[in-house]
Structure prediction request, 188 residues.
Amino acid sequence: MSLFFQFGNALNKKEIKQLNKIAVTNFFKKGDQERAATTVSGKPLKNVDVYTIHWMNVKKYLHKPYQLALYFINHHYGYETFEMNDFRNVNLNIYSSNNKSNYGYHLDASQVNENNDLKGTILINVSEKPYEGGDFYYWFNGEEIKIPFLKTPGNMIYLKPHVFHKVTPVTAGTRKTISIFVSGPKWK
Prediction:
């Protein structure tokens, strides 16, 4: 069974432009380092600007791709998930070549004290202009695997939980992605 699904053209250019405008004007928090992955010594693995936005502000654009991903999560993997409500959050991640933004190998996971578990991550490329670098990789069976599909604006992937993945430094331009963390009841 695959560790991820990919979906082409989840958003069009017009939706991407409007979504970015709404996200950077309606975010309620910039930066989320307290929940970001770190090395064993505590050094941050993330060098990215993160804008946290309530679902209610972006669901007009993200509802359809989210529902498509949920269908695969629930029916192909058999995971039980919670629906997004207006006060759940999504992240707009902005990787800039100005500081060679990147995110080292990490796992997306629930916090220990939460009463739910992560059922996977939805990533949507919402870049408005071409960029260089910023490649997405995951680690599987001792091998680093590149997913060039995510480099195209509007494309979306769903990554199963507990899969090591990274984004290489952006060397030219700006890479933008939306992250939606899908949660559900505790694993049994």
Q: What stands out?
A: Residues 4-128+140-184 form a domain with the Jelly Rolls fold (CATH 2.60.120.620).
